[in-house]
Amino acid sequence: METGDLMNLLTPEGLRLLDDVTALESSLDIVAHVPRLRKQGFDAGLVAAVVTQARLRHKARGKFGEFADRMLFTQAGLEQATRLSVAAHHASRFARAGFTRVADLGCGIGGDALALASLSLAVHAVDADEVTATLAAFNLAPFESCTVEQSLAENVDLASYNALWFDPARRSAGHNSTGRLTDPSEWSPNLKWVFERAGEKPSGIKLGPGFPLEMIPRELGASPVEAQWIDIGGETVELVLWAGALARAGVGRAALVIAPDSSGGGYHELTAAGESIDPEVGELGAFIYEPHGAVIRARLIGDLARSLDAHALDEHIAYLSADAHTPTPFADAFRVLDTFPVDPKKISPALAEHNIGTLEIKKRGVAIDPAVFRTKLKLRGENAATLLLMRRGVGARSQRVAILAERV
């Protein structure tokens, strides 16, 4: 979105039209509505901006729920925005610690600032991009305690704020197609500056979940750092580094699993002072556990295994196994049905015997394309199952194996 398109949209006529189009049932209805808007005499540029925003609002409902229908987005801004359920968790930590004035540096379209402001915290949201800052101002307008500034984070006077939230831009500039920046010195603000500021005031720093473990500092200033990986709906979405009074005593690593809003499962967390000791490798039991990504990223697989009375199946693979099933929010569980060599000719007869027509294929530690492997199997039946293609064992004794299982 360019500045001119945004200015056309931010008119009473543009916003009324946007609300009308957003109310349509689906993205297909929105696209089909374009000729009618053009026939009514609306400017082509305005129609394009309205249609784009309406489609983004529909897409944003997965992150922002009902709030999405009163917000404005760019494609890149929506992709990079914090989900509202995750942002609410971040905001509650600031509120519980007693902070009242927070600077949100790299606010994007305002997802985290919205959650902070909804808890009556005074928030100053900052973004370097003119269009993005304007969208954030629109999205945060209902909150009198929230202000927005277009500026480089490095140019903001932070003296009056008692806590900081950083979400450095980790992708190239742009509102639609952007590329990932792998060098932290190219981020905006750059990571060195972020770490320096976080050593001065209590801070939360949002990073990608794949941020290298060796680059996580043990301390910022005089404060130990807490590293918290967050998983929602089976996807590991981010890593947050907490410093100062926002870091919890005795917690160096944490894996937070947030169930989807529709499930009502809530928040579950596995914490430890540091990396856990890896579990021992053992034989295949009656059940297999696949730890969630946040647990794997946080290197807490050993703690999870011990809580389940489980062991690893391979020294390099994050699958656990046990003879009994223990419900856990930190892993998906499967009941073992059968085992085979990784050979479609050996597997297909068993699939037929179990009447399996729907097969989920997972793989770890083996160079196999599941889509290609599926074409070699005969799937005819009414039942569903999971096929785990993996390695089992230790060192030279490790071997490839296919395990037929069903989700618990």
UniProtKB/TrEMBL annotation:
This is Unannotated protein. It holds the Pfam family Thump_like. Residues 332-407 form the THUMP-like domain.
